[in-house]
Amino acid sequence: MSQWFHRNPLKATDHVKFELKGILSNDKASKICSELRIRRDHFIEHLASASYDRQMLEEEFNEYLALFGGFVRPPGEEDADIRSKLYSVLRFRWTNSMLGSTAVEVSEAYFELLSLCLNMAIWYTKHAAWLAGKDEVREGDAKMCHTCLRKAAGIFAFVRENCGRLSGASDIPGSDFDPKILLCYETQCSAEAQEVTLARAIELKHAPTLISALANETSMMFAKGDKLLESLDESVFGRWRKYMQLKGRIYSAYAYAFLGESLLAEDKCGDAVRACQEGVSEFHIAEDFCSKYAKSPGPGFLAQPDKHLFFRRVEPLLNRHLEKAKRENGFIYHQKVPEVCPELDSKANFGLAKPEPFALPKLAEAWTTASYAAFDISKADMPDFSKLKKSSKDIPAVKEEKIYQTDKDPSNSSGCVIS
Fold first, then answer.
1. Contact at 8 Å (CB) between 244 and 223?
2. What's the pLDDT score for residue 182?
3. How confident is the model at residue 114 (pLDDT cuts 50, 70, 90)?
4. Separation CA 318–CA 312 (nearest Å)
5. What does the pLDDT read at residue 309?
6. What one-character DSSP code corresponds to residue 86?
7. 325 burial via Cβ count (<10 Å: 0-12, 13-18, 19+)
8. Radius of gyration over alpha carbons of the chain, in Å?
9. Strand arrangement of the beta sheet that strand 389-390 belongs to
C-alpha cells in the first residue's frame, strides 16, 4: 500500500493491585482479584508492541473486560444502567493520549473500562501502521490493515457514545473523553481505511470516476478531522492537525487526477486540463504541508511524508494526464479551458469504510451469584467517587516499540501484492 500514518501515543496508567482485603470473604473473590491484576498487567505490557500478535491481544483484551465486568454490573443483570456494588471500590488513574504525563483519576469502574477500550483502539491503529509499513504488503496484510482501522473506529464510536456515563468526563478540552477528540479519532480511522480501499482500486484499475469519488470522500473526511481539532491548543495538537490537512490535500489532488482521466475518456479535453491544473495546485499545497508537519509541535510519530511513494506518485500522475489533455486539445478538439473547475463527485457509491460495531464481552463465568456475594462491601473503606479530576500524581509515558516503516518502494501502483 505504501501508506504512511500519523500515530498518537498510548494512554499510560498506574499499576492496579486489586487489593480488597477487607472486602474479600473467601477464595473465590480472592482468585477473581488475583486474575484481574495479572491479566491487566499482561494486556498493558503487550500494548507497547504494535507487532504483537493481534489475535492474542484481542483474547487478552476480551478476557480482562469479561472478568472486570463484575465491577461494572452485577451478574445476570443486562441493564447497563444498574451498577455493580463494586463500581466505586477502586480508584483508577490514566493519562490522556495527547496531554502528556498528567493523569486523571476517579473511583468509577466505567472509567477503567473505557480507558482500556481506548488503548485497544489506539493499538489497532498502530498495528495497521505496522502492517502497512512492511517491505512487502500482501493482500492479506492489506485486508487486516483495513479491518484493524474499522475495528478501531468502532471502539472510538463506542466510547464516544458511552463516555457520558462518567461525571466530568468531557470537562477537559483535548482529553480522550472530549467528544471532538473521539470523533476525530473515529473519522481518521475511517478515512485511513478508505485509503487502503483506494490503493486497491488503483491497483485493480477500477473506473477513474469511482477512484476520483472515493479519493474526494477520503479528502473530505480528513478535512472534517482537521475541523474538529481547530479549537484546541496548537502547541499540543498542531502536528495532528497538519497530518489531517496534508492527507486532505493529497487525496484532493488524487481526486482531480482521476477526474481529469475520466474527462479525457469522454473527450472533454478542456475540462480535463482544468481538473488537472486544480490537482497540481492541491499537490503544491500538500507539499507545503509536508514541511509544516515536520516542524509542527505536538506528540506523535514524526516522519517525512514527502518521501513516501503514495505522495510522490501524485504529481507524475497529474502531469501525465495534464500533458495528454493539452496535447489532444491542441491537435484535435480546440476546446476552451474553463475558468471554473469541473466539480468532483462528493458521493462515492462504493468503497466507503464504516466503523465495525463494538460490543462489550459477556461477563466471565467466574462471576456467579456466590462469587459476587463473596465481596462484602459493608467492610469497605469506600474512596471518594467524585467526578473525574486531575490526579496529583503524574504517570510516565508508555515505552512503545518503534513501528517499522519500510524505505523501499513497491514495484506496483498501490504497494499491495495481490495473490
1. yes
2. 98
3. very high
4. 11
5. 64
6. T
7. buried
8. 25
9. 92-95, 103-106, 389-390
Reported for 202-211, long-range contacts at CB under 8 A and 24+ positions apart, including other chains, are 202/413, 202/414, 203/412, 203/413, 203/414, 203/416, 203/418, 204/418, 207/262, 208/258, 208/259, 208/261, 208/262, 208/265, 209/258, 209/259, 209/262, 209/345, 210/348, 210/349, 210/350, 210/351, 211/254, 211/258
pLDDT at 91 over 50: yes
In the chain, the amino acid numbered 16 is: V
What is the percent of the chain where pLDDT is above 70?
90
- H/E stretch holding 164 reads none
Residue 358 is which amino acid? Answer: F
Beta pairing class for 103-106 and 137-138: unpaired
What's the maximum distance between 2 C-alpha atoms anywhere in the chain? 91
266-272: long-range contacts (C-beta < 8 A, 24 or more apart)? Answer: 267/333, 268/335, 269/325, 269/326, 269/328, 269/329, 269/332, 269/333, 269/335, 270/329, 270/333, 270/335, 270/336, 270/337, 270/338, 271/335, 271/338, 271/342, 272/321, 272/325, 272/329
- Burial degree of 56 (CB within 10 A; 0-12, 13-18, 19+): exposed
Question: pTM of the entire structure?
Answer: 0.93
Amino acid (one-letter) located at 328: E
CA distance 137 to 130: 10
For cell 473506529, what's the residue? 153
- Residue 374 is inside which H or E element, if any? none
Arithmetic mean of pLDDT, 341-357: 84
* Strand-pair partners of 138: 417
Asked whether the predicted pLDDT for residue 150 surpasses 80, the reply is: yes
> Which pLDDT belongs to residue 417?
38
- The Cα-based distances of 270 to 152, 274, 278 in angstroms read 43, 6, 13
Q: Per residue in 261-306, pLDDT tens?
A: 999 889 898 999 999 999 999 999 988 988 888 888 898 766 667 6
